[in-house]
UniProtKB/TrEMBL annotation:
PROSITE patterns: PDZ (PS50106). Residues 401-421, 459-502 are annotated as: Disordered. This is S41 family peptidase. GO terms for molecular function: endopeptidase activity; serine-type peptidase activity. GO terms for cellular component: outer membrane-bounded periplasmic space. Residues 88-156 form the PDZ domain. The keyword Hydrolase applies. Keywords: Hydrolase, Protease, Serine protease, Signal. Belongs to the peptidase S41A family.
Length: 502
């Protein structure tokens, strides 16, 4: 089982490939595949030869092959990508929660690099880069015509070196030019404090290698400060994902031992798996279980989990599991909907491909892909019920996104993206920067109200109706925090037949 944990990871790619992606590292294995399409391969060889003989200037063989592989893989979906030597090394380093760059999560749209989200407190975030921005130039180089991999190479670099990016922002007439200094992006993924006597707030901004140990330490410190905690808020807003073992371990802190946390299903046998709240899935280190010395009350303390549109991937694993077991009330807005697993196949000593190999499912069998987690209590970011999160970019808005195999309607909703972006920009101008964990944090205050049994200010009626259509309780009523009996094995068994249980 230790090998399964070793092979399973979920990581925020930052500049490498966009929104957080589930990763499995393994060497390219010989598999039984259908016969190769000889005629099509002959055409590829003919084009290769034509470029070599007729192109205006000589082109290196390795460059042509690399670009052919890159184009083939990136045509599949927004999260599949070819990793050359540099990108492969950076990907491995980023699992440790640090990398040198600008601190943005990106994708490609209409030939430009689209900002999905700036990483909290990164150079890009401090420079004013916003989700939805399109990068049109990197220094003096036009982005149009570059692959995502090429653009990433230009944005990466050594610490303390500068890059000038030109941004096109909707409803801003002139290009925005920003000079940003590259830096080591090293985030402190866990924060926490006693908000008021009896109530604690814990924030996980990314799921990194140290996150589980850091969260355990923080929980113990908070209980030492206040042994009578009667309500806990776990804040996963704008958490784009991270390592899956970390997500499983953090789920295991609050769930009964050995219950299912997440299942995966794909075409190959190794993609069909059931990951439980067991040590073998969140830690392979020798020595005591990292969860062994947690306060006894952590398994039953009433909980609220805060999510929003920026909560993706591993955040959706945790919030989906805690929701399925009724262990916590999910409060906030619809999550991003990143429910696919990417496997890293090493194709040489220092290169690989990141390819989508599976979807993941909550313990009850829900696929989150292109849909996300629907909160139990739909609460907007501000008291004005501005609806800003419904206007922001989600998985379903990405070109060539994978469909949801348990909900045919998920990700098919049409919206006027131009109008939504226009409205989002106008709203962003009126919003003050969110100070997580502060007295001005509206969603946090509503979470506290819920824990105290006080009224919660829900989103406007239109959003409320949408949530009820999904079968969620949008009242400030009887959502319980105790852990019920865990779902039985059939959900995982159904995955084997590609029919997840709802």
């Amino acid at each position: 089982m230790g090998n399964k944990l070793k092979n399973l990871g979920l990581i925020t790619l930052g500049l490498v490939a966009g929104v957080a992606a589930s990763l499995q590292f393994s060497a390219m294995a010989q598999k039984n595949v259908a016969p190769l399409p000889i005629e099509e391969l002959r055409q590829l060889a003919d084009v290769f030869g034509l470029i070599k003989s007729d192109y205006v200037e000589p082109v290196d063989d390795s460059k042509l092959i690399s670009e052919a592989i890159s184009g083939m893989v990136s045509s599949l979906d927004p999260h599949s990508v070819y990793l050359d030597k540099k990108a492969f090394k950076e990907l491995q380093e980023s699992t440790q929660g640090k990398f040198v760059g600008l601190g943005i999560e990106v994708g490609m749209e209409d030939g430009y690099v689209k900002i999905i989200s700036p990483i909290e407190d990164s150079p890009a975030d401090k420079a004013g880069v916003k989700a939805g921005d399109l990068i049109t130039k990197l220094d003096s180089l036009p982005v149009k015509g570059m692959s995502l991999d090429e653009a990433v190479k230009h944005m990466r670099g050594e610490p303390n070196t500068k890059i000038t990016i030109t941004i096109a922002r909707k409803n801003v007439d002139k290009p925005i030019v920003l000079t940003i200094t590259r830096d080591l992006i090293k985030t402190q993924s866990v924060k926490g404090k006693i908000i008021e006597p009896g109530y604690a707030w814990l924030r996980v901004s990314q799921f990194q290698e140290p996150s589980l140990d850091d969260l355990v330490k923080k929980i113990n410190a908070l209980y030492a400060q206040d042994p009578h905690i009667k309500g806990l808020v776990l804040d996963l807003r704008n958490n784009p994902g991270g390592l899956v073992p970390s997500a499983i371990g953090i789920s295991a802190i609050f769930l009964p031992k050995d219950v299912t946390v997440v299942t995966t299903n794909g075409q190959i046998p190794e993609s069909k798996a059931n990951y439980t709240a067991s040590r073998e899935y969140y830690s392979t280190r020798s020595g005591p279980d990292p969860l062994a010395k947690l306060p006894e009350g952590i398994k039953s303390v009433p909980m609220v989990v805060l999510v929003n549109t920026g909560s993706a991937s591993a955040s959706e694993i945790v919030s989906g599991a805690l929701q399925d077991y009724h262990r916590a009330t999910i409060l906030g807005t619809q999550t991003f909907g990143k429910g696919s697993v990417q496997t890293i196949r090493q194709i040489s000593a220092d290169t690989g491909v990141k390819i989508t190999t599976a979807r993941y499912y909550t313990p009850s069998g829900r696929s989150i892909q292109a849909k996300g987690i629907t909160p139990d209590l739909n609460v907007e970011e501000t008291a004005e019920n501005d609806g800003i999160n419904s206007l922001r970019l989600r998985e379903a808005d990405l070109q060539k996104h994978l469909n949801n195999d348990t909900d045919a309607k998920a990700g098919t909703e049409k919206r006027d993206e131009a109008e939504d972006e226009k409205r989002a920009i106008e709203l962003e101008k009126t919003l003050k920067p969110l100070e997580y964990g502060s007295a001005t944090d509206f969603q946090l205050m509503q979470a506290l109200n819920h824990l105290k049994g006080l009224p919660v200010q829900l989103a406007k009626p239109a959003d409320k109706a949408d949530s009820k259509e999904d079968g969620k309780d949008d009242t400030n009523g009887d959502k319980k925090s105790e852990v019920p009996s865990a779902p039985s094995a059939p959900a995982a068994q159904d995955l084997k037949s590609n029919k997840p249980k709802k």
